[in-house]
Amino acid sequence: MAQKKLKNIAVMAALVFVALIYIIPIVIIFTNSFMPQGEIARNYGAEYDFFDHRLRGRTHYAEYRLIPGNATFEQYGALLFKTPVYLDSFMNSLELALPIVLMQAAVGPLAAYGFTAWKFRYKEMLYCVYIIVMVLPFQATLVSNYIMADRLGILDTRLSVILPWGFGPFAVFVVRQCMKGVPYSVFEAAQIDGAGHIRRFVHVALPLSKAGVAALAILTFADAWSMVEQPMVFLKDASMEPLSVILYRIGQENIGLVFAASVFYMLPAAWVFLYGQEHLERGVRLSALR
Fold first, then answer.
1. C-alpha distances out from residue 85 to 139, 198, 280, Å
2. pTM of the predicted structure, to 2 decimals
């Protein structure tokens, strides 16, 4: 009994340690967002180069401070009122992420219903192709997506980012895993009652898979909100770049704005996760059980 208790304590201590590894950087970003510009410049403005002895005495290591010396809203004021590019890029992120979420939430369940309720030849083979495409890295499909966007005339528009992601196979995989939990006899009973595929999808498959659709929406938003490669490749106009790309440039121009910009950058994703945590856990659990 004592050995089991010690084992539980050790597991709990390990979990707390891992949690702190993830939490401490977020806490530092939040508290340092109230740090004045001068203090940030002193703490993070220069780093000592170990191999360059000529810089000895003129530079120093970056000092990560948890509590600012003088708390102020200077960073937030400069970010919101003196950096218009930030608000523009924030709206660009929403204009990219929200359509992607809506498209995947609409297309994914439809395709998942076809792979679940329909019986046709080579269904499993076609689904296997979906899985292979899903596990491919972005770089593997970059050239083909770029060529297709160029031929469709949507290059350097938001559609060049939204369309490939909106029809991504990940949505089909997540929702299908949930729909597989619906007994096929339920679809057959609905068919006997005279329900066509549309009614079976709307009144049977979709309500019983709403946890998977909710989990899909949350995961897709988090992924689309933090995308970097796609906007950098397909969007040449800097005025359309999302916040995930602009954030790096803000840090280059003014290191004092990095912390406040990072806090605002985390808020939408954090709110979505906290608001939909129950749906996410249930959807992932159902998907994993199938």
1. 28, 45, 33
2. 0.80
